Amino acid sequence: MAKNSFEPQSCFEHIDKLSYEIGPRLASTEGSQQASEYIKQQFESYGLEARFHNFDFVDKITQIKSRVIILIGVLLGAFFLNLYLGSLVSLLFVSGGYGVAYFIPYLLPKKEEKNVVGILKPETDIEKRIILGAHYDSARCTKGRKWTLFFRIAFPMILVAFLAFSICGIFLGMTGWIIGWSVLGAPYLFVCTLPFWFYEDLVSPGANDNASGVSIVLEVARVLSESPLDNTEIRFIAFGAEEEGLKGSKDFSERTAAPDFFLNLDSLGSGDKLSVIQGNGVIRKRKTDQLLNKKMMEKSDLDIVWAPFSGHDHISFLKKNMKATTLSSIEYQEKNKLDLFLEKFFSLSNAHIFRHSYLHSLEDVPEKISLENIKKSGSIVLDLFAIEEDKT
Ligand SMILES: [Zn+2]
């Protein structure tokens, strides 16, 4: 049986290659270039049809900075317009400013990146199509992940609050509120984006996030290339620029026909327990494919968690109405107050904002990867594919 020949040792070789030898792999840099070439060579060495899919993207920091500059300008402008021309003019100005801030990414310079695709065709007719993927880029080190969290919560609140105050100002004659908010809003916006302005340009070696996922994609590809599933085509993908806002998976999901399902592997090398991501988001909740999750959980002992503020590459596929989920892992730690608050008021089940302690840091190194997690992930993926094969 194919699953017996899954070699965790090969996974560790890939992880060492990606996170030690190549090291940091920020999208559109020398590191990510080397990583994509390495992955393509591996696919080719297993006899897969391998190719690059190129795409453009705007990097996250540039996008955040330009939005913040525009919005601070809007708040200050609104303050003076309020004083001299009244609240209606000010509101129109603010609405226009929000529009510019929204569309600004389309005008910013783009960077180039690529997905690496390896296709394994069956010897028989194709009746099923499966996609197995993991992102290969690594993230900038966040100075205290709480800042990013704070930003993600505070940013939309500032925008909504300002709009609400402006409307109150016009209809209830509360001009003072608008002026007050403009004066407070501008520095507040600046403060809550501080880490983005004073970024040390450190990039994580990304052993867990996500050389671990890529290593399993590669090893599963090798195993299955030796004994392909009947009637099933598998596309193995290493996504670029996930940390810049799921850019690679977005591009791929726009080019591909709907598969039978997409399984994403992200950050499963360290942590106490492998788990399925049940969904993401707080106000707009996005659930992963329930049936697929159930199938995976029937076979192995897995947790299921809700990831309120994280993005995963399955989201790009869910947006296109395709069946998708992510296998990840979780460290056992007390839920924080925000987790409990979200569970209570937004009816999220098993919410965990922080699931890994070394994520997006210089400490995300191969020593933290557990053999057990790698072994188990390999068999979960191969078992799932075997169930699918039996059904054809
Ligand atoms: Zn990741």
Alpha plus pi helix count: 13
User: Which superfamily, in CATH terms, is the homologous superfamily of the largest domain?
Assistant: Zn peptidases
Fold-level CATH name of the largest domain: Aminopeptidase
Assigned CATH class of the largest domain: Alpha Beta
Counted up, domains total 2
**End-to-end distance:** 18 Å
Total number of β-strand segments?
Answer: 9
* Average pLDDT for all residues: 88
Helical content band: 40-55%
Please state the structural category. alpha/beta
User: In one word, what is the shape?
Assistant: elongated
CATH architecture term of the largest domain:
3-Layer(aba) Sandwich
Task: Give the SSE map.
Layout: H1 8-22, H2 30-45, E1 49-57, H3 60-85, H4 87-103, E2 111-120, E3 128-135, H5 145-172, H6 175-192, H7 194-197, H8 207-226, E4 232-239, H9 247-255, E5 261-265, E6 273-280, E7 286-287, H10 290-299, E8 303-307, H11 314-319, E9 324-330, H12 337-345, H13 371-391
Parallel strand pairs: 3-4, 3-5, 5-9, 6-8
Antiparallel strand pairs: 1-2, 2-4, 6-7, 6-9
Helix pairs in contact: 1-8, 3-4, 3-6, 4-5, 5-6, 8-13
The structure holds zinc ion.
Zinc ion is lined by residues 135, 209-210, 242, 266-267.
